[in-house]
């Protein structure tokens, strides 16, 4: 069996006694696309914080390709090959779309090569390709602040890809998007899933249905259940804590 | 015995300076927690509080005994209210326009602090009257014109006419006054020199504890005053309706505003409270030494350091930090430590090098920087995922 | 097609760069060759001093305008540069074994060890840059690595200013305390007070200013510069992109400190005095306001601001010495509230509109995104046809 790309054991994170994550176990195979759902306050964002090194585990371990992430800081984790997209798009508003990509795409992220090295033509081509993929070629030299919300979401996903990580963590990629844009992002993620491992956190059930193979439900800081979309949807515990209200509406 | 006495004295003096810092820092920390803004004019508010004490003292002197002995009791609320008033003015007039731009706020409040410093140096009857006339003309006029329906359209025009006009009229009146009454109106009230507040008789002297060691009443008074302020702030924040509102806006401004809390009023009130505390701290420093236009500058950086070391969000952090900075400053600066380690020659030399008030600050700064190496968020840092989101 | 466009763009930007370099050299030549014919003596010396201060303004702009670090302590680096060259000027005319005058006064019998290397001009010239650089980098490292930033960083730098002020002010035996180091006689054998020597200083200042401008221009364009802006706008996002912002901030803060040191040295040799007053908090914050007046994140703005504010200051404080602080305070308030983008920003927006108005051109206000959206632009062009 190949090494797990992400393996989390007995993870607990507490803030002044409040346990945001409580004895959580989780693992992922390389190349998997996993959707994580859970009601508000289930610890989804803290879960991503711990993987990316922003928050350190109080107890337990997080291992990426067998490496314990505890001793790495955020940028080192990013260099190991974990990319993250934030809940609200976080892009560099005062830079142009292209410059945003240039920063993400840089292969050699130390000070001196950033200062002295020219941008290699190979990277330029990658960037041009990415601009095409996310549909922002026309707006490549426009300040990112002037992009629409959907364009910002696409830009951030593009930046994530530009980093060429092995594991993508995507936090609510379709929040605030139109149905059509949601559809697009869905197919984009599915396309990416062919060459990357992806964790998606999402509330939008339609979207989850579109992309999900494996779903993990978080509740009060621990894994409530795991399985494919149908199984999870029919799990009585899940219905009770989360999907219950969803079902009633439908 | 001598060493014990020195230690106790140092501890007590340090404690009283720490107490002044604490009152001032509390005001700063509450405002910083709420609005993320550091008020560079905080020191000048302390100075204003000290000058208020000076004025109240002089007024009460003319009433004779027993009033001249109790002025300090009256000076405290007056200083609080006056600086709180300045605080509201500053918040309404400047800071609220800079919301979300903390670094620009630093610069703007620095400008205010320069103006206040120069103000106490050169304030005289002419200046005071001119300012009153200008405000009456300009703001009165604005208030009057703002009622017109087409105010928004003619706003720029009104400003360009009103501002120079009111300035010219008040300037002219000031000039005429100065020419007619000469020195009676042009003599500065305080001037650039330091002024002295004499503590009332019952605050002079001290309690003798043993030997020659005594606790000065003035310093005791300051410590008690600080304790009272702490208790007052604590009760206000924890028990009162507005205290609850302040705490809620501190935690989540948007949510509070959605729940119908008037965040603008909360801002003003908090700023007034913080500034008022600076006024009280000013009262206290007037008991420790003479007061000048630069008084605020001498204290304010230490006050900032209390906020940095204490961390925001918890009053306890400010308390520990203020006392620590106050006492360490005093112990090093007075040479008590150098005396203590006398047997070890190089160590004694080292501490003697730092044994002046200004060199002690050098050492304290390096201690703070080293402290921040392992506690960057201060003594009681905020935790949770809201931080640095 | 895309590649073609890219090449054309590159060619265009190369041309622009050449034009810019030409303008810089042109202005420098005018300042060096023509201005001295028009103004002499005191006024020229003043211009030289203000141009030296403009170097410090560029240093501030680099960290504040581009990287978002508001330093209220650049006076320290400025003064260190000044002291480094002043110490050399104290020692230069002395015979070996003798001491600067003030040391005799305070009863110092032996030259302190750290004074000794300053007898060499080369060492001093390097120290002007390297001492502030190392100090800035060290302080920056200690602060940035703990992710202390924003207002916290600013008030820490302010505290550092007080600390250095106290230190230099208190050490009479080492640095002549409050009086500072003054009364310079010779440098490299030339008499400091000679007009010719002063003219060399003036020329050097302009050369250094142009070089500083070029350096800052290089640093702020390209990927490094974009990264600085990225750090300013969203530092933690930069971390998740795989960069360690600490290193970048340390480097840029160190460079900025070195430039402030250079500015201090050039200012000192033209003023003839360096004292702890240069480490006054007020002076450090004044530097920031030069940049704010000129326009943040604009290098031309920083230089312009330094010149405008200082000439204004010398005019006003000559006329109204008593109430100069009122003006200064008001300047802080006005710039921050009314002119957040400084003179350059104002020229770019309102100034243009004003010109349009005066010359009768029509200007229709739209959303800024419409102005830049290429699709809208294309539509507009086709409509006009």
Brief summary:
Chain A is of the alpha/beta class and 250 residues long. In chain A, 40% of the residues lie in helices and 24% in strands. Classes of the chains: A alpha/beta (250), B mainly alpha (389), C mainly alpha (385).
How would the blueprint of this fold be written?
The complex is a heterotrimer of chains A (250), B (389) and C (385).
Chain A: E1 6-15, E2 18-28, E3 33-37, H1 44-51, E4 59-64, E5 67-68, H2 74-80, E6 82-85, H3 97-105, H4 111-116, H5 121-133, H6 149-162, E7 167-171, H7 179-193, E8 197-201, H8 205-211, E9 214-219, E10 222-227, H9 229-234, H10 236-249
Parallel strand pairs in A: 3-8, 3-9, 6-7, 7-8
Antiparallel strand pairs in A: 1-2, 1-4, 4-5, 9-10
Helix pairs in contact in A: 3-5, 3-6, 5-6
Chain B: H1 2-35, H2 42-63, H3 67-93, H4 102-122, H5 125-145, H6 151-181, H7 183-186, E1 206-210, E2 213-216, H8 217-239, H9 241-251, H10 253-258, H11 263-288, H12 295-310, H13 315-333, H14 336-340, H15 345-353, H16 357-374
Helix pairs in contact in B: 1-8, 1-11, 1-12, 1-13, 2-3, 2-4, 2-11, 2-12, 3-11, 5-6, 8-9, 8-11, 9-11, 12-13, 13-16
Chain C: H1 2-38, H2 41-66, H3 74-91, H4 101-105, H5 121-144, H6 150-170, H7 172-175, E1 181-182, E2 186-187, E3 190-191, H8 195-220, H9 222-233, H10 235-240, H11 245-271, E4 273-274, H12 281-294, H13 299-319, H14 324-338, H15 342-358, H16 368-372, H17 374-384
Antiparallel strand pairs in C: 1-4, 2-3
Helix pairs in contact in C: 1-8, 2-8, 2-11, 2-12, 2-13, 3-5, 3-11, 5-11, 8-11, 12-13, 12-15
């Amino acid at each position: 069996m190949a090494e797990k790309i992400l393996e989390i054991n007995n993870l607990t994170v507490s803030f002044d006694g409040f346990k945001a994550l409580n004895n959580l176990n989780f693992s992922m195979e390389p190349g998997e696309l996993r959707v994580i759902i859970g009601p508000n306050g289930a610890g989804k964002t803290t879960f991503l914080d711990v993987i990316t090194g922003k928050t350190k585990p109080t107890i337990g371990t997080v291992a990426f390709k067998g490496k314990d992430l505890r001793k790495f800081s955020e940028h080192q984790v990013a260099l190991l090959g974990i990319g993250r997209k934030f809940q609200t798009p976080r892009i560099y508003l005062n830079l142009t779309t292209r410059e945003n990509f240039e920063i993400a795409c840089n292969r050699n992220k130390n000070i001196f090569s950033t200062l002295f090295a020219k941008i290699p033509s190979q990277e330029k081509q990658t960037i041009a390709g990415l601009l095409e993929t996310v549909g922002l070629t026309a707006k490549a030299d426009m300040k990112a602040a002037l992009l629409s919300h959907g364009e910002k979401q696409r830009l951030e996903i593009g930046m994530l890809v530009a980093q060429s990580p092995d594991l993508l963590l995507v936090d609510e990629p379709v929040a605030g998007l139109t149905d059509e844009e949601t559809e697009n992002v869905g197919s984009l993620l599915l396309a990416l899933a062919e060459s990357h491992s992806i964790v998606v956190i999402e509330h939008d059930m339609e979207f989850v249905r579109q992309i999900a193979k494996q779903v993990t439900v978080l509740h009060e800081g621990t894994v409530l259940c795991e399985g494919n979309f149908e199984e999870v949807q029919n799990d009585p515990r899940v219905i009770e804590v989360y999907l219950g209200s969803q079902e009633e509406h439908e | 015995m001598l060493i014990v006495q020195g230690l106790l004295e140092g501890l007590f003096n340090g404690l009283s300076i720490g107490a002044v810092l604490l009152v001032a820092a509390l005001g700063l920390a509450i405002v910083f927690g709420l609005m993320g803004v550091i008020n560079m004019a905080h020191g000048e508010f302390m100075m204003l509080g000290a000058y208020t004490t000076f004025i109240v003292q002089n007024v009460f002197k003319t009433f004779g005994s027993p009033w001249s002995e109790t002025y300090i009791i009256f000076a405290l609320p007056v200083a609080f209210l006056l600086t709180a008033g300045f605080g509201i003015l500053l918040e309404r007039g400047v800071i609220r326009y800079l919301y979300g731009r903390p670094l620009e706020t630093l610069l703007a409040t620095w400008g205010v602090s320069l103006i206040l410093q120069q103000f106490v140096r050169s304030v005289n009857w002419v200046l005071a009257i001119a300012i009153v006339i200008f405000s009456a003309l300009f703001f009165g006029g604005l208030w009057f014109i703002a009622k017109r329906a087409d105010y928004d359209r003619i706003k720029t025009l009104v400003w360009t006419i009103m501002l120079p006009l009111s300035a010219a009229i008040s300037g002219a009146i000031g000039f005429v006054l100065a020419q007619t009454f000469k020195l009676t109106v042009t003599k500065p009230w305080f001037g650039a020199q330091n002024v002295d507040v004499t503590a009332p008789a019952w605050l002079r002297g001290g309690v003798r504890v043993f030997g020659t060691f005594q606790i000065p009443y003035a310093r005791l008074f300051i410590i008690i005053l600080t304790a009272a302020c702490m208790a007052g702030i604590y009760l206000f924040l924890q028990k009162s309706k507005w205290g609850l509102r302040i705490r809620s806006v501190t935690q989540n401004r948007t949510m509070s505003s959605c729940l119908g809390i008037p965040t603008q009023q909360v801002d003003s009130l908090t700023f007034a409270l913080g500034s008022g505390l600076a006024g009280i701290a000013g009262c206290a420093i007037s008991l420790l030494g003479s007061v000048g236009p630069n008084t605020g500058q001498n204290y304010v950086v230490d006050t900032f350091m209390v906020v940095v070391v204490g961390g925001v969000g918890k009053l306890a952090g400010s308390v520990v930090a203020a006392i620590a900075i106050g006492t360490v400053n005093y112990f090093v600066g007075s040479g008590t430590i150098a005396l203590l380690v006398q047997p070890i020659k190089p160590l004694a030399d080292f501490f003697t090098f730092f044994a002046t008030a200004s060199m002690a600050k050098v050492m304290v700064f390096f201690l703070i920087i080293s402290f921040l190496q392992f506690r960057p968020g201060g003594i009681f840092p905020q935790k949770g995922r809201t931080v640095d989101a | 097609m895309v590649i073609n466009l890219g090449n054309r763009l590159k060619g265009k930007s190369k041309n622009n760069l050449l034009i810019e370099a030409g303008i810089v050299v042109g202005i420098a030549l005018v300042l060096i060759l023509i201005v001295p014919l028009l103004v002499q003596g005191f006024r020229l010396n003043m211009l030289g001093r203000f141009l030296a201060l403009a170097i410090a303004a560029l240093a501030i702009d680099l960290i504040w305008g581009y990287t978002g670090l508001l330093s209220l302590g650049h006076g320290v680096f400025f003064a260190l540069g000044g002291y480094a060259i002043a110490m050399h000027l104290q020692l230069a005319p002395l015979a070996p074994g003798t001491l600067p005058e003030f040391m005799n006064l305070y009863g110092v019998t032996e030259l302190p060890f750290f004074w000794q290397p300053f007898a060499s001009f080369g060492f001093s010239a390097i120290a002007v840059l390297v001492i502030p650089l190392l100090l800035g980098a060290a302080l920056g490292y200690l602060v940035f690595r703990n992710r202390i930033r924003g207002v916290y960083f600013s008030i820490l730098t302010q505290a550092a200013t007080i600390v250095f002020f106290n230190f230099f002010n208190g050490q009479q035996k080492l640095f002549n305390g409050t009086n500072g180091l003054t009364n310079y006689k010779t440098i490299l054998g030339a008499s400091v007070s000679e007009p010719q020597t002063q003219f060399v200083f003036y020329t050097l200042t302009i050369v250094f200013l142009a070089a500083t401008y070029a350096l800052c221009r290089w640093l702020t364009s390209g990927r490094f510069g974009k990264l600085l802006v990225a750090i300013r706008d969203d530092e933690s996002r930069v971390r998740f992109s795989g960069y360690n912002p600490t290193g970048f901030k340390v480097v840029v803060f160190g460079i900025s400190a070195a430039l402030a040191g250079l500015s201090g040295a050039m200012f000192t040799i033209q003023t003839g005095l360096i004292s702890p007053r240069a480490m006054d908090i007020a002076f450090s914050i004044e530097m920031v306001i030069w940049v704010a007046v000129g326009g943040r994140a604009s290098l031309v703005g920083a230089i312009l601001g330094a010149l405008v504010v200082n000439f204004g200051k010398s005019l006003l404080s000559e006329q109204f010495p008593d109430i100069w602080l009122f003006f200064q305070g008001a300047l802080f308030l006005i710039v921050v509230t009314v002119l957040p983008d400084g003179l350059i920003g104002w020229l770019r927006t309102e100034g243009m509109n004003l010109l349009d108005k005066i010359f009768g051109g029509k200007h229709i206000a739209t959303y800024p995104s419409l102005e830049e959206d290429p699709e809208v632009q294309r539509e507009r062009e086709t409509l006009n046809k």
